[in-house]
Amino acid sequence: ADLAAGFASLPDRLDALASALDGAMRAAAEDLARASVVFFTGLGPNLATANFGAAKVRELCPVHAMAIPLEEIHHYRLPKRGDALVIVATDPAARERALDTVLVGAGEGARMIALLAGPDEDIDARVAHTVLLPALDPALAPFVASVPLHLLAYHLAHARERAGLGYPGLWAP
Asked: How far apart are CA 80 and CA 74, in angstroms?
């Protein structure tokens, strides 16, 4: 019954979240506009959301974007200086590995965005942008986390076009 009520409330919650996060995601997109690759990472359901984010960026921007499991970022030290790294960590169980990922990204010089279900001083101090998402049933978290990623892709396309890095005329009326 609680999950059904949560699903029923999603449309209004997602609309409100999109309105609340639009400016923050626009600012993050401006910051990341010159990245030549955008890595997305997550664990479990957050990896599915990371895949969604990467797909939206590939769809809208002429830039490489890919999702990598949270654990694999460490083995390959994938993000390099100037790359973007989006960490989707809405599950508190993934917190330690998310922090490890942030430490790797910071060590390599990546620009990072962290999507979290609650405040985390250690992660927040090391990333360029933190997006706090409402705490919901874990089954609903991927829906909620997709909202800022969709906004990021949309604003990234516009920011890249303004910087001369986009598809010319794609967003013209």
From this structure: 12
